[in-house]
Amino acid sequence: MTTQQRRIGVAINPSASFGKTRAVGPMVLDALRAAGHRTVRLEEGDVEGLRVSVRAAIDAGLDALVVVGGDGMVSLAVEAVQDSGLPFGVVPSGTGNDIARGLGIPLDDPAAAVDLVVGALDREPRTIDAGTATVGDRTTWFVGAVSAGFDALVNERANRMRRPRGRSRYSIAILRELIALRPRRYDLVVDGVAESVEAVLLAVANNTSIGGGMLIAPQADLADGRFDLFVVAPVSRSRFLRLFPKVFSGAHTELDIVRLSRVRSVTIAAADISAYADGERIGPLPVVVEVVPGALRVLA
């Protein structure tokens, strides 16, 4: 029995009722109840329905929110709690899980991840930064990264694909985008200073990785009040293909075509590209990205 009983909302990815992740949601609920907490199971047939249910549960009164899923579910949590200060936890069961990776949450051991979240309820939540990405009159909150280059184009293609499901869909999207690889011109405003760059990859990272383990910014810190601006200069398709695997180990940071710089705000403009925040489409460029230090309280 914990020292204090809490009312915990548990939001489960609508896709988690299929495949090997179907047991993770019930595991979370059982563990929280065993620890003496009251639980509110939040599960709908689609993400929009779940978003409404989570918001209603928060308005009705929760002490914390736990999401079961991948980065998309973390995005849902961040949007739901950012104006309330409500702490949230994540039990990863998605395909990417980059934010859970950055938080040090076990990715391949659901029981260990559940234990971490349950234990975190009895200590002060961890405080981390968030970011806002504004396109037009719409502002989206994020934790991981805003992508606006090759990786955003891969997301755009993958989201249009119906088959296959899972990571292989992104692998196919990567290969198809490689065929059309070309540098883009970006007009940037970095911490108030305007510049133009030619690049094939461009992202604004709060977290270390994107795309299921691509360590674009190995030294990124979720609590340092800064983003890492990641830019890859124009490169041939063949060289890009040879060098691309280095991003999974972080070895790419030693290359002369890679630029990493610490920033607080970035405006990104370019033609025919849509920005993605934590893998979710937020709309066509331009986008204004700003850090919000200490915005989130996390059970990790």
How is this structure best described in words?
The chain has helices at 24-34, 47-61, 71-81, 98-103, 110-120, 150-160, 167-179, 237-243, and strands at 7-12, 38-42, 64-69, 88-92, 126-135, 138-142, 145-147, 184-190, 193-199, 201-205, 227-232, 258-263, 265-269, 274-277, 280-284, 287-298. It has 300 residues and is of the alpha+beta class. Strand 8 and strand 9 form a beta hairpin. Helix 1 (24-34) runs parallel beside helix 5 (110-120), helix 2 packs parallel to helix 3 (71-81) and helix 6 (150-160) packs across helix 7. The longest helix is centred in the first third of the chain and has 15 residues, at 47-61. It is globular.
Indicate the low-confidence ranges by residue numbers.
none
What percent strand?
Answer: 25-35%
Average pLDDT, all residues: 90
Strand segment tally: 16
Write down the secondary-structure element order: EHEHEHEHHEEEHHEEEEHEEEEE
Largest sheet: 6 strands, antiparallel
What is the 3D form?
Answer: globular
Looking across the biggest beta sheet, what order are the strands in?
6-5-16-13-8-9
Q: What class do helices, strands and sheet pairing give?
A: alpha+beta
N/C terminus separation: 20 Å
Number of helices: 8
Q: Which percent range fits the helix content?
A: 25-40%
Rounded to an integer, what's the Rg over CA atoms? 19 Å
